[in-house]
Amino acid sequence: MQTRRLFLAAALAAALCAPAAAQEDKTIVVASTTSTQDSGLFGYLLPIFKQATGITVKVIAQGTGQALDTARRGDADVAFVHARAAEEKFIAEGAGVKRYPVMYNDFVLIGPKSDPAGIKGSKDILTAFKTIAAKQAPFVSRGDRSGTHQAELQLWKETGIDIASAKGPWYRDVGQGMGAALNTASAMNAYVLADRGTWISFKNRGDLAIAVEGDKKLFNQYGVILVNPEKHPNVKKELGQAFIDWLVSPVGQTAIAGYKIDGQQLFFPDANVPGA
Amino acid sequence: MRPPVSDLPLVLDNVTVLARDVTIVRDLSLQIAAGAPTVLVGPNGSGKSTLIRLAMGLIAPSRGRVTWGGRSDSDGRRRAMVFQRPVMLRRSAAGNVAYALRATGIVRAERPRRLADILARVGLTELASRPARRLSGGEQQRVALARALAHDPEILFLDEPTASLDPAATKAVEDILRGVAQSGVKIVMATHDLGQARRLAGEIVFMLRGEVRECAPAERFFTAPATAEAAAFTRGDIVI
Amino acid sequence: MHDGSSAFGLILAGDPALYAVVWLSMLVSLSATAVAAALGLPLGALLALTRFPGRAAVVVLMNAFMGLPPVVVGLAVFLLLSRTGPLGFLGLLFTPKAMIIAQAILVLPIIAALTRQTIEDLWAEYRDELTAMRVTPVGRVATLLWDARFSLVTTLLAGFGRAAAEVGTVMIVGGNIDGFTRTMTTAIALETSKGDLPLAIGLGLFLIALIVLVNAAAWGVRRAGELRAG
Questions:
Q1: Closest residue in C to A21 (Cα–Cα)
Q2: In the predicted model, is pLDDT for residue C158 greater than 50?
Q3: What is the pLDDT of residue A6?
C-alpha cells in the first residue's frame, strides 16, 4: 500500500517535471491587457488567426505594466499593449525588437447620470477633469500602471493639476482591472475613465452612463512588439512575428475593424497611419 | 521458527525504575525460570505492571540490569505481550493475526495454515472475518492472545488480561492460557484476582510498594504465606 | 463564454467552454491534492512518531503554513518558474502543470499538519502494542496511516476544498488563459470583473455543487470501508 503510493507520487512528479516539449506545436504566448481581453476582441480575432495560420495564441491578460514585465522576463513571446511611452521604453531597453502600431480605440469618461460635476455632454476632457477636481466629485482610478491608468495620469498632467498631492477622499485608487474599477464606480456613483470596448460589454452599469467622449486626447493607441529573442532564446520568433505580420496585414486590419458589439465598432485599425 | 537461543532464565538484577522522582520499583532482584506460569500478585500500584514491562523489554531500568538467558541485548523475538485493554487494528480478526504473522518471517505459503491453527486455538474460527473493533471485550482479548501466539513466543507476558472481562470471557481466556502453558510456553502474568492466581499459578511473586515481598510456589503461598503482609493480602485485607 | 446566458442554461446545454473549465478545475485540484497527499501523509506521520531538536518549531511552522495566503504562494511559484527564475528552463509557467505544483504547495501543510495530529493521537493509543510487536519504524508509519484512513479522508477533503476554492495561486501561475488555464475560480473572477454578476454567481454555485459532490463521494467510500473493516 505504502510502496504503491510512493510509486504513484514518483511517477506524477516525473510527469510534471518533463519539460513542456510536447507543446512545441504551434502556440505562442501573448501578454496583453485586461481591457483588451474584457472587450472580447481576442475571442473574436484569435479563431480567425488560427484558421489562417494554424497558430494557437494563448493570451495572458494583465495590466499594461504587468504585461510588459511578463514580456521583459521572457514569459511571453509577444506584447500587445496600449501605452506608447512604456512601449518605447521597452524597445529602448532592448527588451523588444520593434513596435508596430496596430489599432486604436478610445477612452470615455463614465459618470453617474446625476452628474454631480455638471460635465455631461462635454467634448473637452481636460476641462471636465478640472471641474471634477474642483468640485471634488467622486472619481475612481485604475491605479495599476495599466495603459488606461497611464492615460488618466497623462490627462491630469495636462490639466496642470498635480493629482498626487491634489487627491483627497474623492479620488479612489482601486489598483485593479477595468471591470473591477467599473464595478466600484457603479457602486459608488463615481466618475471613471474607461476604454469604450470594456464599457460596451460591461453589464453592471447601475446608474452610470457616458459623460464625456470624442475628445482627440481620449484616443488610445495599441502597439504590438516581439520580445527580443536575443535576450530570451526561448521566444518563438517566427510564430510571434507571424502574429504581428497578420495583425498589421490588410486581412488582420479588416478583421479588427469587423469586431462589433451591439453594432458598434470598437477598434479602428491604423497600422499604416504614419506616426501612430 | 524459534531462533535457537533462549531468553530464559530471565534475571532482573537490582533493578530500580524511577519516573520523575517517583520510585516505582526499588532494588528489585528476581529470577524467572522455565516451567509453570509465574503469576505476579499485589495491590494496585505495587509495581506489577512495571515489572512485566521490564521483563518484556518495553522499558529500561534506571539502575540495574535485565538479562535474558544471560544476554542483556536479546532482541525480543521470543517474547510476546498481551495488555489489559487490547488495541485492535482496524481490520478483521484474522487480519489482526495475519498482521502479527507477517512480522515473524514465516514462509508465505505456510501462513494460511498457521493462521487457521492459531485462530482455532483461541476459538475464533467463526469470527475470523468480523471487523475486530466490533468484537466483544473477551473476543478482542482472544484476538490479542492470537496475535501474541503468532510470534511462537518462548515467554508470554500478560498484564491483567481479564481485569475488564466478564466471568465467561475470563474463563475462556484462562482455558486458553492453560493450554498455552501446557504446550511449553513460559507464562508471566500480573493479576489482582487472587482466584485467578490460585487457578493458574505454578509460582507466585507477591509485590508491595515496588518490591518483591515474597516468592513461593503457589500451594505454599496460599496455605502458609511467609510474610505478614502476604497473609493479610490473601485474607483479603487492604495492604498498604 | 456567452454574454448574458445564465450559468444554468450553459450547464444544461453542455456548453463545451464551461465543461472545459470544470474539467480543468477538477483535474488541477484533484491532482494537487493527490501530490500533496503522497508527500504529506508520510511526512505528517513521520513527524508524529519522531523526536528531534527543533521539532516543536517545525510543528508550529507547519500548522501556521496551513494558512499560507494563496496569492503569496502563487507569486513565489511564479518567480521560480518564470523564464528569468531558477526553474525557468522547464517552461512550466502558465500551464496546468504549474497550477498543480502551486496548489500542491498550498495544500501540503494542511495535509501534513492534520495528519501529524491524527497520527500522534493514534500513536498514544497504539504505542504499547506496536512496540511489543516490535514493528519497524516504516511499519509503524504504514500501520498507523492505514488504521487512521477514515480520519485521513477528512484531511484529504480539507486539502481538496482549499485547492478547489482558491483563485490567487492559479490566477498568477496559470494566467487565466482562455481554453488552457482558465479554472472555475478564475472564470468567476473574470466574469465578475466584466460585470456579469449573475453568470459569476451561477458559476460559483456550480463550483460549490461540485465540491459537495466530491465530499459526498468520499463519504460514500468511507462508509463502505467502515462497514467492511469496522
A1: C91
A2: yes
A3: 58
Q: pLDDT tens digits, residue range A212-236?
A: 998 888 988 999 999 999 999 999 9
- C-alpha atoms less than 13 angstroms from C-alpha of A170 in its C-beta half-sphere: 17
Residue A101 CB contacts under 8 Å (≥ 6 apart), including other chains? A221, A222, A223, A248, A270, A271, A273, A276
Task: Residue C112: list chain A partners with CB under 8 A.
Answer: none
Residue A34 has a pLDDT of 84
Q: Which residues pair with B211 in a beta bridge?
A: B208
Q: Å from C42 to nearest chain B CA?
A: 19
Cell numbers at residue C203, please?
Answer: 458559476
User: The CATH number of the domain where B48 resides is what?
Assistant: 3.40.50.300
A126 and A159 Cβ atoms separated by less than 8 Å: yes
Distance between B59 CA and the closest CA of chain C, angstroms: 10
Look at residue B205 in the predicted model and tell me its pLDDT.
95
Query: How far away is chain C from the Cα of B11, in angstroms, using its nearest Cα?
Result: 19
Domain containing A159 — which CATH number?
A: 3.40.190.10
Name chain C contacts of B92, Cβ cutoff 8 Å: 229
How much is the ipTM here? 0.89
C101 touches chain A (CB under 8 A): yes
- CB-based contact C229 B90, cutoff 8 Å: yes
CA distance A176 to A143: 7
Q: Look at residue C205 in the predicted model and tell me its pLDDT.
A: 92
Q: Spell out which residues of chain C touch residue A43, defining contact as CB-CB under 8 Å.
A: 178
Please give the interface size between B and C, counted as residue pairs whose CB atoms are below 8 Å apart: 44
Evaluate whether residue A80 is within a structural domain. Answer: yes
With touching defined as 3+ CB pairs under 8 A, do chains B and A touch?
no
- Of A78, A128, A87, the C-alpha closest to A107 is A128
Count of domains forming chain B:
1
**What angle, rounded to 10 degrees, do the helices at A64-72 and A84-92 form?**
10
**Domain count for chain A:** 2
Question: B90, C139: Cβ pair inside 8 Å?
Answer: no
Q: Which residues of chain B fall short of a pLDDT of 70?
A: 1-3
Q: Alpha carbon of C30 to those of A7, A228, C16, C37, C214: distances in Å?
A: 18, 38, 21, 10, 10
Let me know whether A203 and A262 are in one domain.
no
Range of the domain at B206: 10-235
The Cα–Cα gap between B112 and B98 comes to 8
